[in-house]
């Protein structure tokens, strides 16, 4: 193996451990989840995996937060979610920032921290609006293109209908000409 290949394969192993830990957390099998979390923590590769790369997101702190919440360590879980948010904010990953703010607002509410929940929810809405507005020109362009595509589809449909009508008219004319020709022949035979 080359160094790059071994780094990549070890990253996949660490990612698979994290996915297994999260799966066991979701299944509420904490004992199995912590085994895989410990493997991730003990792995030197885990420190070198960025929160986002071409392989996707590496949400170690978020998954730890889910785990700690499940086992009842709610304040530790909130700290994990905050750490996950800070790391996402550091590299400006809006999708993860929105996700973590939503989770934090929900968890604060569950803890009875209404003011923190409201503040986090307001921050979430502001970020969501800024992301939404940043992509607004693209959505407008996509909408305009969709309208053009629909107009083209309608125009193509009209042209197909016109062609079918012309084909029907042509068939009728052929039938009229054929009947006229046959009538002419029959009349000619009868006259002679």
How would you portray this structure in words?
With 192 residues, this protein is mostly helical. The protein is built from eight helices and two strands, in the order αααββααααα. Strands 1-2 form a two-stranded antiparallel ribbon. A hairpin with a 2-residue loop joins strand 1 (52-53) and strand 2. Helix 5 packs antiparallel against helix 6. The longest helix is centred in the last third of the chain and has 56 residues, at 136-191. The termini are far apart.
Key descriptive features of the protein:
192 residues; mainly alpha; two-stranded antiparallel ribbon
CA-CA gap between termini: 100 Å
Global structural class: mainly alpha
Estimate percent helicity.
over 70%
Number of helices: 8
The helix/strand order is HHHEEHHHHH
Q: Assign an overall shape.
A: elongated
Strand content: under 5%
Mean pLDDT: 85
Which sheet architecture does the biggest sheet show?
A: 2 strands, antiparallel
Read across the widest sheet, the strand sequence of neighbours is: 1-2
Low-confidence stretches: none
| Cα-atom radius of gyration | 34 Å
Please identify the oligomeric state.
Answer: single chain
How many beta strands in the DSSP annotation? Answer: 2
């Amino acid at each position: 193996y080359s160094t790059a290949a071994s780094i990549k394969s070890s990253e996949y192993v660490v990612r698979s451990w994290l996915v297994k830990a999260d799966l066991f957390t979701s299944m509420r099998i904490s004992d199995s989840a912590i085994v895989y979390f410990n493997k991730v923590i003990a792995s030197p590769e885990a420190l070198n995996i960025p929160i986002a790369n071409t392989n996707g997101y590496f949400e170690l702190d978020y998954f730890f937060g889910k785990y700690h919440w499940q086992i009842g360590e709610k304040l530790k879980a909130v700290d994990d979610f905050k750490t996950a948010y800070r790391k996402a904010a550091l590299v400006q990953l809006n999708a993860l920032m929105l996700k973590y703010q939503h989770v934090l607002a929900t968890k604060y509410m569950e803890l009875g921290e209404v003011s923190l929940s409201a503040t986090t929810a307001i921050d979430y809405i502001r970020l969501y609006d800024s992301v939404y507005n940043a992509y607004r020109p693209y959505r407008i362009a996509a909408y305009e293109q969709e309208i053009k595509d629909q107009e083209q589809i309608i125009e193509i449909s009209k042209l197909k209908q016109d062609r079918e009508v012309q084909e029907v008219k042509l068939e009728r004319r052929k039938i009229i000409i054929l009947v006229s020709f046959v009538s002419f022949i029959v009349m000619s035979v009868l006259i002679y």
